[in-house]
Amino acid sequence: MFEPAERLKSVKVSASAAMTRKVREMRAQGIKIVGLSSGEPDFRTPAHAIEAAHKAALAGDTKYPAQDGTRALKEAVQRKFRRENGLDYALDEIMVSNGSKQIMFGATMASVNAGDEVIIPAPGWISYADQVKLAGGVPVSVSCPENNHFKLRATDLEAAITPRTKWVVLNFPNNPTGAICSRTEMRQLADVLLEHPHVLVMADEIYEHLTYDGKEFCSIAEVEPGLKDRTLTVNGASKAYAMTGWRVGYAGGPKAMIAAMINMQGQATGGVSTVGQAAAVAALDGPQELIRERVADYQNRRDLVVGWLREAIGITCHTPEGAFYVFPNIAGCIGKTTRAGRRIESDTDFVTALLEECRVATVQGAAYGMSPYFRISYATDIESLREGCKRIGEFCADLR
Fold it and tell me: Exposed/middle/buried for 95, CB within 10 Å: 0-12, 13-18, 19+?
């Protein structure tokens, strides 16, 4: 009889992935669901990126790829880091992976030893902590409360660092809150990290381009060059270019770190699809106006969703500054009972009842390390957002 390895016993399936799977199953049964759980752009991949992949395939670029990425893509990533982030990485300081998720998994597995601590601001992306657990490390959650706009405070970072700290994870704009760290706030975090030279920095910048209201994005390795030799700058094509299914992530970091990550990747998957890499080259080097147009569209959706949710009884909703999520507080709904007789004791109860009674898919805040909240993705069409928020409002109005 099969028994899972011990390392898997403390690791759960991602709540957002589990919800997406449940939605697919319900839809396969003919049940109509308003899906607001998946962090996946509803836009199409840019046509010039698709055409580049097509040309690469026709030209015979279909063989095993280089483990660390094609030279063409690594050079495109090199140009991107210089152009947009003010960061200069040599080609042996850059690698390409099967999405940014594998970049971070490879970095964690290549560096974390049993008992090493990794500081993870909460709320934060579901997989950070589980990847640390798989590596035998200890995730250290640091609360970033709403009254500080869900941002990591320098004093809290300082208090969390110990001699066992291996990494601190920074994710701005943030999933699930949309929080953005200003240059001044990033400077304060950098000043703390300068005092602790044993701590590595994992900067997850996958939502870099999705900022609103004139907010500026900044990379910590650019804000403080003294941290560059221990910072892994992580990014990818998925969110900005609507290329989630192409599975192309990339990173820049210290040569020794990148070499270890390439070794780890070689034991797991091998290189990234050649045609996917060709598409990513076209996306990075091609016209960028499309991103600005989509950001304007996302900002409009954000404003609509925040406005609709603020009309719901028992919900308060912070205005996110970036990414494409809202993270509403449902404290006013806890302790109440749904029309179908379910008692809402937690945000998990809330999203479960919302799905089963009103056919709206969202994700509980507990999955991201903060309750009582839930996450809505507005990376979908306005009609779905309108209908989903309408149902949420009706659901809340019926609570007693």
Answer: buried
Provide the 3-class DSSP secondary structure of residue 112.
coil
Pairing of strands 231-236, 200-204: parallel
Q: How many Cβ atoms from other residues are within 10 Å of residue 82's Cβ?
A: 12
Q: How many C-beta neighbours within 10 Å does residue 22 have?
A: 16
Cβ burial 228-252 (10 Å sphere, 16+ → b, else e):
bebbbbbbbbbbbbbbbebbbbbbb
Q: Residue 382's CB: how many other CB atoms inside 10 A?
A: 13
Distances in Å between the alpha carbon of 132 and those of 18, 95, 138, 215, 328? 20, 21, 6, 31, 27
Per-residue tokens: 295: 């950001």
Q: Which CATH class name applies to 62-285? A: alpha beta
DSSP characters for 55-70?
HHHHTT--SPPPTT--
What's 74's DSSP letter?
A: H
Separation of CA 126 from chain center? 9
Residue linked to tokens 């152009």: 83
Give the tokens for residue 268. 């797991």
Smallest Cα–Cα separation from 168: which of 192, 195, 202? 202
Mean pLDDT for all residues in the chain: 96
pLDDT tens-place string over residues 133-184: 999 999 999 999 999 999 999 999 999 999 999 999 999 999 999 999 999 9
CATH of 6-44+290-397, one of 3.90.1150.10, 3.90.180.10, 3.40.50.80, 3.40.30.120: 3.90.1150.10
Half-sphere exposure in the Cβ direction for 195 (13 Å, CA): 12
Picking from 352, 381, 387, the residue whose alpha carbon sits closest to that of residue 23 is: 352
Instruction: Calculate Rg over the CA atoms of the chain.
Output: 21
The answer to whether residue 15 scores a pLDDT higher than 80 is: no
CB 379 within 8 A of CB 42: yes
Residue 164 vs residues 113, 137, 262, 267: alpha-carbon distances, Å: 10, 10, 25, 27
Residue 278 token pair = 């060709």
d(CA 141, CA 366): 13
Query: Does this model's pTM top 0.90?
Result: yes
Give the start-to-end residue ranges of the domains of the chain: 6-44+290-397, 62-285
Among 92, 94, 64, which residue's Cα sits nearest to residue 77?
Answer: 94
DSSP symbol at 216: P
SS3 category, 163:
coil
